[in-house]
Specification:
Helix content is 35%, strand content 23%. It has 16 helices and 17 strands. It binds benzoic acid and fe (ii) ion (FE2).
């Protein structure tokens, strides 16, 4: 059992309550009490305690969308236009997954990615895995992991092979299953997954109650393809697969497949209209936005007010280094705070903080995301400027790294004084 305290303990609950000079008493399993730091030290005499000056304690952050396997993609892909980016992904497919790119092994690049997550206060990741190369490295890391085994494939002739390959990766990931490593399923997107493959994979997900992730309506090109089977994707399938095909779905018919699934994360949704949002809301889906990735590929940001209208919780992720320069969730938060310049500053900063804590776990069985007795002992500590009242904007603006990170009550990251951000 131990106690930590700080100038502000930010619960990240629905009311956005903050304890000044607050403390948390916890063991390796869960949070036992939250109160004033002095109060807890008096109540639990003899329990080791540590106070973080000029700091805020929040729940450990959640980055629900990244691709760790694409950690060595810097400089290789075309940014600025979704179609040109996807062309560059396909043209560089072999190079991107080379074991040793420019002297850095993929494993080292993935380790660096994990460090970027931890250093930005992330304790939980939703990692989309295309190949399974990231399985062991993630399972061995201190992170809690929702491991999304991804399925992709549009060519009718290879669907059975792809399904068997997916099942094999899912089984592999199940051998690492634990309280902090949860196998799950990712559907790449409506343009890249054949409806027959989707049906079979969703049947598995439903039967085994596996969380789901899907890229959905990320680009205008995808919207046009789903609406009319025209535009960029028409030539894409001809150029890369030598096929003249039409879209497997409309946006709505694709969403219909997910009607009876639970815990689905829809990623991007930049082009989702009100009908799509209404449908996602009805199935209690969540939407993950990745503002930096969206800026680089689509020059567009998701409108958080549209989500609010339908009561859809907004979650924030980084996406992978195939469409971002870093996996730091603090970078993502800071850029989002600047980029959404029509949003009121402080209330939006709070909303952003909730998008990487509470919202990530709403309507799930994970005891994570807000600080409350009985929840898991996962915390991030951030150095912030000294103020009388807590300002979410100060955390987002000034915290470049987490000063400490606890997962399961264990401190997994410690920065020394020289590398402190203030
Ligand atoms: C495929 O593997 O079939 C595919 C990959 C990327 C985009 C579309 C289709
Ligand atoms: Fe992605």
């Amino acid at each position: 059992m131990q106690i930590i305290g700080a100038d502000f303990v930010v619960l990240c609950d629905a009311e956005f309550r903050v304890f000044k000079r607050g403390g948390i008493c916890f063991d390796s399993k869960e949070i036992l009490a939250i109160d004033s730091y002095e109060g807890l030290c008096a109540q639990y005499k003899g329990v080791p305690s540590q106070y973080f000056e000029s700091c805020a304690i929040t729940p450990a952050l959640a980055n629900l969308h990244l691709h760790l396997e694409f950690s060595q993609n810097a400089g290789l892909l075309h940014f600025g236009n979704f179609g040109k980016w996807l062309d560059s992904v396909l043209e560089n497919r072999e190079v991107l997954m080379q074991e040793n790119l420019e002297g850095i092994s993929l494993k080292t690049a993935m380790q660096q990615g994990i460090q970027e997550c931890l250093q930005s206060g992330v304790g939980f990741v939703g990692a989309v895995s295309s190949y399974g190369y990231d399985l062991k490295i993630l399972a061995d890391s201190p992170l809690r992991v929702l491991y999304f085994n991804e399925v992709i494939g549009s060519k009718a002739g290879v669907l059975d092979f792809l399904f068997q390959n997916f099942l094999a990766r899912l089984e592999d990931s199940k051998s690492f299953q634990s309280e902090s490593f949860i196998p799950a399923v990712a559907i790449h997107s409506p343009y890249s997954v054949h409806s027959k493959l989707l049906e079979k994979v969703l049947e598995v997900a439903r039967k085994e109650n596996l969380p789901l992730s899907v890229h959905f309506l990320e680009s205008l090109a995808e919207k046009e393809w789903l609406e009319s089977s025209k535009g960029y994707f028409k030539s894409f399938f001809k150029r890369f697969f030598g096929e003249e095909i039409t879209s497997f779905y409309s946006a709505q018919s694709f969403l219909e497949f997910f009607k009876n699934t639970k815990n689905t994360y829809f990623v991007h949704c930049l082009e989702a209209d009100s009908l799509a949002l209404e449908t996602i809301a009805k199935m209690q889906g969540k939407i993950i936005t990745c503002p930096k990735s969206n800026r680089l590929l689509n020059s567009k940001l998701l409108n958080p007010r549209a989500l609010e209208r339908y009561g859809i919780p907004l979650c924030l992720g980084t996406d992978g280094k195939s469409s971002n320069d870093s996996l730091s969730l603090l970078d993502e938060l800071r850029i989002a705070l600047f980029a959404y310049c029509n949003e009121p500053l402080e209330s939006f900063a709070r909303e952003l903080l909730l998008s990487v804590t509470r919202n990530a776990f709403l309507n799930t069985t994970f005891k994570l995301g807000s600080l409350q007795v009985g929840n898991l002992a996962d915390f991030a500590v951030f150095k912030i400027p000294k103020t009388r009242e807590f300002l979410a904007q100060n955390l987002i603006l000034y915290a470049r790294w987490a000063n400490a990170l606890y997962i399961n009550g264990v401190e997994v990251l410690k920065r020394n004084a020289e590398t402190n951000n203030l």
